[in-house]
Each structure stands twice: as C-alpha cells, then as structure tokens.
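@channel sequence for tomorrow's demo:
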Amino acid sequence: MGNHYSLLTIVTGNNALMERQAVDKILACNAESEKYGLVLSEQQALALTRTQTTVLNETKRIEFNGGIVDKMISAFCDSPYITADNYEDTLHELISLFYELKNNTWDKISDQALITFMKNEFNSHCHGSLDMLAGEAFCLAEHIHCGGTI
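structure tokens (generated this afternoon):
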C-alpha cells in the first residue's frame, strides 16, 4: 500500500500544480481582456480549467502545452458578441467546440488556425451564435473529410 499511496500523492500533487499553472495562465489574460470589460475571477478560471480537463477526457485527447484556454481568451476577448454577462459561459462552450472540432478534423488543422477559423465565423456569419458556430464547425469537418483544407 505504501507504494500506491506514494504514486497517488505524486500524481495528485502534479495535477494540482498543473491546474494552478493553468489558472494562473488564464488570470494573466485579464490584462488584455479587461480592455474590453471582460475579467475572470480565480473561481471562473478554475472552472474553465476543469472544463478543459473534462472535455479532454471526453474527447480522449491529451494536451502537452497547457491547452488552449488562454489562446481562446486572447482571440475572442475583442468580439462584439461577448459581454461580461456571457463571457465565462461562452468560453466554456468554445473550449468544448474546439476539442470536438480538433477530433472531427482529424488534427489536420493547427490549433491557431482552428481558433482563427472559429473566431472569424463567430464574429461574421454566426453573429455570436454558438449554435451556428457548431454548424459551421460541422461543415468544416465535412470539408476536411473530403480532402479540403482550411
């Protein structure tokens, strides 16, 4: 039992450290996003980190570089469709959609290109609708499956 307990302690401690680093990375984005009236609390940053972990597990994905939450914040914080009232909820949905789209496009699109696609569609054709963005994501996946590129 001693060896199992030690391993559990190491894994749990490592997860807590990684979670703390992810939260700090998200909170650092407040310097940029507050220009648009968007600020996340530590509790909200933790919730976004946990959403990312949950979605990674659900989509059976692994992240080696700390994930994309901070990149999503940087990309979307200037959107005219995101307000202080819908900021956190929108980010939760964007995180989920991002990883689903990564899987559905067979990882043929870089993270940054995918975020750029999502932002452009969200701000133009979709007029801030996450449902419409999900539809555009489905069309992109079909396009990739047929041999297209972004």
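heads up for whoever presents: DSSP finds seven helices and no strands in the chain.
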